[in-house]
Design a protein that fits this description.
With about 210 residues, the chain is of the alpha+beta class. It has one domain: Immunoglobulin-like (Sandwich). The protein has three helices and eleven strands. The strands form three sheets. It has a five-stranded antiparallel beta sheet. Strand 8 and strand 9 form a beta hairpin. It is globular, with a radius of gyration of 22 Å. Bound molecules: calcium ion (3 copies).
């Protein structure tokens, strides 16, 4: 009897392993720009709506089809945009206000873009099928000072906390999060472009007065 029980347990373990779901894939909000002052979508024109952008990142171990994901702001009751494309593990994907306007236009929805308020707002990441229902996967509320000219709000890749990327539009106030001097990174995993790694601080550069 003991042998039979052990065999059954072994079989159960083998079956459980065979049926285990694939490594979890996880899409997270990673960065956003609510108040662009430049031509971020590279269409040759500046537009307060078309040049807003949002970024998501795949923190999981498997590629993710972004067609299961949608976004909206606080004022919207339904999605403002349907994400698309496939995102590989560790990669970031950026979507511009012009992408949202194009999708809205194609679907007969008011062409408000992402409609991220410059006085602060909340961005929702939703998951669900075409037509809904949608469940909220994540929300990020951003303050007024995170929504100023060419300043982005994103996840610190070291601490996991949301921070300012204000290298193009320095924030000198003391309301958290305070300025970092880092530049926005649309379409790339977040890191600080303005931080110079220690190894490149050569003696010659130091003598030349770069630091
Ligand atoms: Ca805006
Ligand atoms: Ca533009
Ligand atoms: Ca980024």
């Amino acid at each position: 009897m003991r042998t039979i029980i052990m065999s059954c347990l072994a079989l159960a373990l083998v079956l459980a392993a065979a049926w285990a779901p694939p490594a979890a894939a996880q899409v997270r909000l990673n960065e956003l720009m609510a108040d662009p002052a430049s031509d971020w979508d590279h269409d040759g024109l500046y537009d307060y709506k078309s040049d807003e952008w949002i970024e998501v990142v795949n923190t999981g171990a498997a590629p993710v089809d972004l067609r299961n994901y949608w976004v909206r702001d606080e004022a919207a009751s339904e999605p403002r945009f349907h994400l698309d494309g496939v995102i590989d593990p560790g990669e970031a994907a950026v979507f511009y206000g012009s992408d949202a306007v194009a999708w809205q236009s194609a679907n007969g929805i008011s062409t408000a873009g992402f409609s991220l308020n410059n006085g602060g707002d909340t961005l929702y990441l939703l998951q669900g099928p075409e037509g809904g229902p949608w469940i909220t996967v994540e929300t990020v509320a951003f303050p007024d000072h995170a929504a100023d000219d060419d300043r982005s709000y994103g996840v610190d890749d070291e601490s996991g906390q949301w921070m300012l990327f204000d290298g193009l539009s320095p924030y000198t106030g003391d309301t958290p999060p305070t300025g970092s001097g880092c530049d926005p990174t649309p379409g790339e995993p977040n890191y600080c472009h303005t931080q110079v790694p220690t190894e490149v601080k050569s003696l010659g550069m130091i003598k030349a007065g770069f630091f």
